[in-house]
Please model this.
Amino acid sequence: MIGDVLGLVDREAQRRWRSADAGADGVAVNGAAAPVVRLPWREVDFFFDLLFDEANRRFFRDRLPRCRRTWNRRFRRLAGRIDCARRHMELSSAHFEACGAGALGIVVVHEMIHLSLYVDRRPYGHTPEFKSRSLQLGLPGIYHDLPLPERIERKRRVHLYRCRCGAELESRVRFRTPRACAECCRRHGDGRYDERFRLEYVGLQRTG
Model:
């Protein structure tokens, strides 16, 4: 279960870095409790490499390829995402600083479930199969219900896109290539891009 892996990684963090702080209360992520582990940035790569390797061994039979991992300071509402085809995982540095390494550890495992479906050549969105695999690992929720970092609710201009289903998408930049509604593609297109659900550009909007 995810708690066993986080516990092992947490103990390793405590052993290596005396500055690590496993908070008593923890943080709830995807329906699971994560220890609050504070790590210096210089040690973060080792921590997440250890987590990835241990989760890969326990949950995925060492079938998953290592991913390039980067930190995105623009992620405020989004804790993490993965581009399976390019083997690229992005994590929110703001959430890491606010919630600690344990919380982002659960986000990493969540993204690894997406990757496992991709490796198995299965639809790899938030499908029923994805939810089933998440439950097996002890993650009953599919959304990263982390507390939002401070100072994110500020007025800003965003580009607004709309799907014919009514769903809307906000972006800080205007897309240079066509994008489709993720939910419609998951429901009706096996999680792949489908021209039928191409997003229509609405225009610039002020939000916040």
User: Anything to note?
Assistant: The two ends are 39 Å apart (CA to CA). Residues 156-207 form one domain. Residues 17-24, 151-155 have pLDDT under 50 and may be disordered. The beta strands are 27-29, 32-34, 68-72, 80-83, 88-92, 156-162, 168-171, 200-207.
